[in-house]
Specification:
alpha/beta, five-stranded mixed beta sheet, 7 helices, 46% helix, globular
Length: 138
């Protein structure tokens, strides 16, 4: 499949959201060290992840970042960790983002999440052959 899943960071996203799909594409382009795998929250794999943790299984307005056997992060903490993992300039962005308290950065995240369907187009993302290998389930 995607190599050893235990050593990857898995990004769970709303597979029907254009903004989410835009950011998945963005991460794919920046992931030079092959750190990430992806799964939609609507997929069986995504639903299993949510159910095992007692998380909401019908609302898909939250991004999750999971490092198996270690942690999972949500909302702005997930975004900042993704930036940190990407490294380079994005580590600086992550450090700057951590200046703000989580409740504040999550409030901003929630505003974007609430309006994400208005912000995006309905274009479908078509990954190339290499990128397809990074998806667990969509």
């Amino acid at each position: 499949m995607q190599g050893d899943i235990q050593h990857k960071h898995i990004v769970f996203f709303d597979g029907e959201c254009g903004v989410c799909n835009f950011w998945v594409q963005w991460i794919l382009e920046k992931d030079k060290n092959d750190e990430f795998l992806f799964a939609s929250l609507q997929s069986d794999f995504g639903q299993k992840f949510l159910t095992e943790r007692g998380l909401e299984t019908k609302q898909f307005n939250t991004l999750y970042l999971w490092k198996p056997q270690q942690y999972y992060l949500i909302k702005s903490k997930a975004v900042l960790k993704i930036s940190d993992i990407l490294g380079g300039f994005y580590t600086i962005v992550s450090l700057l983002g951590k200046i703000f308290p989580t409740f504040f950065s999550n409030a901003i995240y929630d505003v974007v999440s609430k309006n994400r369907m208005k912000l995006s187009s309905r274009k479908c993302f078509l990954p190339d052959a290499h990128q397809k290998k990074k998806f667990i389930e969509v």
